[in-house]
Amino acid sequence: MHLRYRAAYGFLAPYLLIFAVFWIWPIISSFIMSFQNTRVNPWVFNPGATWGRLFIDPAFYNALKNTMIILVIQVPVMITLATIMAVLLNSPLLKAKGLFRFAFFAPVVVGEVAYAAVFRLMFNLDFGIINKLLLSIGIPAVSWFSETPAAMSLLIIAVTWRWAGYNAIIILSGLQSIPEDVYEAATLDRVSKVKQFIHITLPLLKPIIVFCVVLSIIGSMQLFIEPMLITNRGGPGGGTETLGLFLYRQGFASSNFGYASSIAYTMAVLAILISLLNMWIGREAK
Amino acid sequence: MKSQSRSTLIRSLSLHAVLIPLALIWLFPLWMMIVFATMPDSGIFNPQIVLLPSTHFIENVANLQADTDFIHALMISFGVALTYTILSVLLTSMAGWALARYNFVGKSLVVAVILGTITLPYFVVVIPQFIMVAREFKLANTWIALIVPPLFNSLGVLFMRQAFSMMPADLFDAARVEGVSEWQIFLRIALPLARPTMAALAIILFLASWNNYLWPLLISSKPSVMTAPVALGSLVGLAKVSWGGIMAGAVLLTAPIIVIFILLQRHFIAGISAGAVK
Amino acid sequence: MAELSLKNVSKSFGSYEIIRNACLDIADGEFVVFVGPSGCGKSTLLRMIAGLEHITHGEIRIGDEVVNDVEPADRGIAMVFQSYALYPHMTVEENLSFGLRMTGNPKADTERRVQRVVDILQIRELMKRRPKQLSGGQRQRVAIGRAIVREPRVFLFDEPLSNLDAELRVQMRVEISRLHKELGTTMIYVTHDQTEAMTLANKIVVLRGGNIEQIGAPLDLYDNPANQFVAGFVGSPKMNFMSAEVVGVETGNVTLMLSNQGNVRLTLPLKDTPPAVGDKVTLGVRPEHFTNADGGIANLTVKVDVAEHLGNTSYIYANVASGEQLIIEREESRHDKTRDTLTVAIKSSHALLFDSAGNRLQ
Q1: Does residue C153 sit at the B interface (CB-CB below 8 Å)?
Q2: Whole-structure pTM over 0.90, yes or no?
Q3: At the topology level of CATH, where does B68-235 sit?
């Protein structure tokens, strides 16, 4: 019996060591750093230079604002789209299901750098295929990279393209777990298909949709590669700078570790708060 | 009966009328990636709309090689992703096994810490990780730096723990009664039975490592250990660079993953969906 | 081969006791069955003997050795599980030899032992199959085979037949009986099915709520249950229990009134300290211990609710106004369906008396 306890620690130890060194300790360490001025040697406790600066730094507010705008628009658009995709993919009338599933899911496996490069080229003002197509149907070319609203839209389009299929697959697995006889019973009770969707499917899907929303919020909160590579480091002029990019710049371009840590914890707290709010809403309506 | 089959036909047609254009839009960027990658740079700047691939792929790869040693970077990426995947699957399987099948002091604490921190943004840890690896251990530009720190990922622990805890306990007790050691129970019974879950996990981890950008960007600056996403990312946004070359690089980076995805779609999707079922 | 003994064995999780002070002696070669309703602790007790569960207090001895801290594999036991616990990714052959291979048993000896099992259980044609390709009964055989291969001192069976259908269950029951005779090894067998217990055991241990209620040979338990629980648990259909009130006490005799059966009075012999007049007691009579009217110590007239005819015998389910149901076995006649009342008598010396706490009064 005692041997078995020892075996358990043996199985756990190697992972736990790495987990402690590269996850737990950094979590603590960056929390401590977020109260330190790290631009002097040795580092000193000075929350004014980190948390204090957050409150008065217009660049931080700009990044926060941009992140929130993207979040508020992109997450609902993407989840709605993903739900529609999932419902359509779940239809027994659909032919070549695997092909459609591939089409929507393939973006998930494409690396951020590769797709960022493609989007950058596709949305180029002068020779991008999107503007060429717009022109061919009489819409004037959009300067996707030099006007803030267009650049923000581009980011939202890019992120939605990449992650909608992922969420659709998760929602689809939720749909498939709803037992068929629930619908058969409803059909016998003469409940229309639309009403079945509203009164049966959606309520049963709610937990999984809330899960997707929370996951997407946490993801979009950390948006970094897209503004870095697609809109050229948060361009135009910081118009698409996100918290992730701002943190990267402060932490690694300016080596201001303390300040960057306080930004990281702001992100963490926001992600947790928004997720909790979401789960609370999800529970309340039950 | 006839009107019913007719309404079914209409429903089927409208379903496809919505889904086909949507699917084409979704495939469009991937298609354009291929088109651009096979086009000469002059073709990309041409005002005409070109939607079909051309024949200049090899030329574009050569252009890319002139800008950065991308083939080498791909090899680094592959080596890193493969090593990382094997190590991570092994470590997290062992940990998941311990957490699923044994009672020991501190178990609930470990589970609580993993579950409680799994959604924390990566940015919270990346700065201390960087300071530790680059400044304290002086391991920048090494394979160890590329592979070991990302092993913290606890997704596999939860994944494998779930798989192991769904196996019938009698199986392992039967082996214990037969005098099989705990290690052999793990290696000879638990792991073989968890193969589908391990496959799904391995795919997800390989994908994550293959596409990883931020950590390699921070920790590897020398061409000798530069991964493919970092090499490609370094070209994006440069003024004098071959767009066809970048697109060829994007294709080289994406194609292996797409092939794996097509071959193992079932495992991929099992892995993605399993993450949602807590 | 070995005898086995439990001395004051207890197990608790915090303040919750799963097994309380179990004492039991098992002789070499005995077939002992632990029986009781689900949650009574019978499987836990078996797993404690196997070494798969820790014991909080007491002492378990196998042969001359106290095995409290001995690993399961070193206790000289083999176990057959309810779910069979066959390794799904190995063939039958690999399943049988896995434990021996893993513990470095010499190859020739392993082969010899597997061959012996194949002969005993006649499973040669199954050797290359995987568990998935076997029927329930075949899986059960392989699971038993895997236990025999270990050549243990004690076999432990944890509800091994409960996943089989009724017919196969009877067949396997007979086979296990035959195996016991052939091997002569001590066997401990857990079941919730009292028929299995009655048919297989030399010795039955009845458990309830972590307590051993009674230990005895099958027919001893049947004839002389220690309390109302054992009386009700052993025997099928169940013993009838009738509420009664003590209305008269004399030396060696007690007179009862069956309050729910039309206040019928009857007198039983009693050696124990008699209860006081006015005490509530329970009278227990097995279905087969009724006889024709006036043939016993008291007549009961009941309303026939349902009659089940099984051919060789009939069961009359009778309801009284108070809601107390009686099951009466009538061997001699096929019950006439048109009659709706029936008068039967309770055979003397077959009526058991229990006090209000459920303890037997003799």
Answers
A1: no
A2: no
A3: MetI-like fold (1.10.3720)
